Structure prediction request, 499 residues.
Amino acid sequence: MENKYLKKRKWVILGAVLLVLTLIITGTYALWNYFKVGPNQQLVAGDIYMKYTEGSSTINIQNAMPTNTYDPSQVFEFTIEGKNTYTKPIWYEIVIKWGDEPVDRHTRIPDEFLRFRLTEQLPDGEEQEVIAEGKYDNFEDGKKIWVNKIAANQTDEITITYKLYMWVSNEMHLGSGDDAETSDMDMETWNRDAFASVKVSVNGDFEEKTLEEEQETPTTVVATEMLKAKLGTDGLIGIPTTCSEESCEPITDKSADKSTIREYRYSGETVNNYVYFNCSDSTSEQNSSNCETWRIIGIFKDDSENEHMKIVRNSVSSSSMVWNSSNNPSWTSSEVNTYLNGSYLTSLTSKAQNMIYEEAKWYLGKVTYEATTVNLYTQERSTSDYNPWTGKIGLMYPSDYGYSVDSSYWTTKTGISGFTSTVVGTSWLYKTANPAGEWFLSPSSYGSNYVALWGSSGRVYYYIASVYCGVRAAIYLKSTVQITGNNDGSLTAPYTLIS
Prediction:
């Protein structure tokens, strides 16, 4: 059965919206004065207390629409202060529940469409993410979203500052006219009457508290957003916008300023970036028997700042073919291009073809032999020899392979003098290299009829366009493609995609 959200995504949403989201604090203040009698009938006293200090009590969002991420300017901040001179830790829990109904708004946005991000402020002022995208189907009577403790025998004041972000997920679909009846909410109600109001409380005592798996993770999310939330894990790193030959250190901190990340890539020998693709049209089930296994290269922005996942076959599409029998290294006249965007494209299932980003821009700058990965990336994007080509299926760039090795080698030359067996052994891509070599997308500056090649040794090389080499398809997916299910991207549980 087609997912109802996918049907609704086709609708056109019109009109300005006024939506007020309110986080209302419940100032829970816990104070215990505990007395006990010691072994010598001596009275022993200790102060055990925890204070909940409210910050700004309201988030107001005007002209809002459902979105796939939080607004960093719309944040509710609160601080927990505690001191515990007793021999037992104080456990506390952060709970959200329905807030009060505004005077002029009466239609509560369904809980399942609200998303929450919780961070803890570190001593250096940075934010450490605690909850990336919490989803709770029902918190009318309260839902525990986080637990922590103040350790025993704390004579110094403990201060912990949290920041809570709330937004309406773009899984919620609005309709008007004929579409209103089957939408999650009609536009008129959304404009006039919709609201979200959430109370936050902190409760504490000596009893150990657990989440008991109450925090729920969306089972279907935009693929790029889910993967970005895994920054620093599973081999996913951020390439800084300032990446240069002198400095190109990976970004792995989830709390990093995302504007400093040029793109996201998988780097290192062992990464969880497997994904099912080209799955059978006849069944909704995705497994190794009815899908191909591909790998995720990373996440890249188009000219409109939309983000697209780039994937590559885990093996070659064609074991051996010429780039161009007339030795022309131009991609637009390449026989590889004709094959990939002709017979190979039409061989893909309808499901797969519907996921492909049709307006992907493929750069065709010439690359030099014995360049570093950082330099290759710059050379590939040059337009001095060939203009970028727009289309569905291409090949990997040399830098796609270069960035797949451990980050310590990104400024190492990718040819014979640099990419030794030790270096290429740190690449997740190298394990699947074709012994006969594979074509890259980029023409080579070595000569007028040469194209960049991925050698069987794992080095970036070049060859004349009329020789036979392997071909491995690379594809950018639409920005709306989603990951569904609970697979973790490992070889035994590749991510599953829906369009």
Summary: The chain has two domains: 4-218, 228-476.
